[in-house]
Amino acid sequence: MSQLPVTPALAVSDSELAEMAIHPESFWGVVVRRSRYVVAIAASAAVMLYVAWPLVSPPPELAGLSLVAWPGHGGIVGAAVLTGVLVACILLSMILCHPDSPHIGIYCALLGLGALAIRGGNIHLMVYSGQTSGRLAAIHKLLALECVQWAVIIIVCEVAIRLFYERLFSNLRWLDRSGLSRESVEKMGHKVGGSVGGFAVSLWLLALTRKSGDKKPNQIIQNVIAILATVIVASGVLYVFMQSQNKGQVLFALYVSFALGGGLGRAAAPHCDLWALMLAVPLTAALGYLSASTHMQFPGESASILSRALPVDYICAGVPAVIFGYYTALRIQFRHALDAQT
C-alpha cells in the first residue's frame, strides 16, 4: 500500500462526487454491527474456556498461563490445539461479523483468548516461584521462547485469514463505511485490486496500491520500519501505563500502547504489511523478557516493566490493538485523500 498523495488534485465533476458519496450506516446499523462483534468475542471466549483451557491451564496451586513455563501444562500439544481452536474461532467470528474487514475474525478471536489470560491469573506466582528457586532468569528465557511460539501461531492464523477471506468472505463493505467506494478510490488515481494468495503478498485486494508509474517501495524496508516504530512507541507507552501486574491494568496498558504503536507504525511505513505489525507484539515481549532484571524489588513483583505481563497477555491485547491502530490509520488516510479531492 502507499501513502496517498494530497496534491495535485484530480478534476472531479459534481456528478462524480455524488457517486463517491457513500450513505453512512444508520444508528441501528452501527448498533447491530457492533453487537455482532460482542457476540463473536463472547463465542470465542466460550470456545477457548471449554476446549483449550484443560490443555493449557497452569498447575492448580499456581497461576499464570504459559505454553512452556510449567512442565506438563501446555507444551507442543497444547500449542497445536490452541492454534486449531484459534483458527476455528477466527472462522466463527468472520461468519458472525460478515460482511466486514478481513481481520475482524482474528480481532474478535484474540479478544476471546483474553478469557484464558484472565482465568489463568497474572504473572505474580510465576515470578515468585522463580525468585525463591533462583530460576527467574531461566523463566524469563522460557517466556521469550514462548513468544516465538506465539509468532508462529500468528503466522498460521494470518495464512488462514487470507484463505477464508479470499474464498468465502471477500467484500468491500468496510471500505464503504469509511466514506469511500471502489469507484471513488479509482477516480483518485489509485487502483483497488490484487490477490491475497501467497504469504509474501499484502492482504489488501481491497486496499490501495501504488499509483501507476510510481516506484515500488522496498517491502522489506517498509516492514522493518513499521516493526521498529511499533516496538519503540509501544514500549515507551507501556512504561507510562503498566505500573502494576494486576491483570486489568496489564491488559489496558497493552491495548493502549499497541494501538498507538500500530497506528504510528503504519503512518511511518504506509506500504507495510499488517502481519509485520502483528509480529511486533511478540517481539516486544521477547525483548522485554530477555532484558528483564532478576533483582527482587518485592516478592512476586517483576522489577522490569515489560516483563510484568505474560506472553498470552501480549497476544490477546496487543495484537487486536495493532489491528485497530492499523485500520484507524488506514481510514484516516482514506479520508484525507477524499478531502483533498473534494
Structural commentary:
This protein has 342 residues and is an all-alpha fold. The protein has one domain. 66% of the residues lie in helices and 0% in strands. It contains twelve helices and no strands. The longest helix is centred in the middle third of the chain and has 34 residues, at 136-169. The two termini are 22 Å apart.
Compact overview of the structure:
By secondary structure, this protein is mainly alpha-helical. The chain has helices at 14-20, 27-56, 75-97, 104-120, 124-133, 136-169, 173-177, 182-187, 219-241, 247-268, 274-290, 311-341. Helix content is 66%, strand content 0%.
> Largest sheet at a glance?
none
What is the total domain count?
1
| Uncertain stretches | 1-21, 193-213
Structural class: mainly alpha
Strand content: under 5%
In total, the number of strands is 0
Indicate the radius of gyration in whole angstroms.
21 Å
- Inertia-based shape: globular
User: Considering DSSP H and I runs of 4 or more, what fraction of the residues is helical?
Assistant: 55-70%
Mean pLDDT: 81
Number of helix segments?
A: 12
Q: N-to-C SSE series?
A: HHHHHHHHHHHH
N/C terminus separation: 22 Å
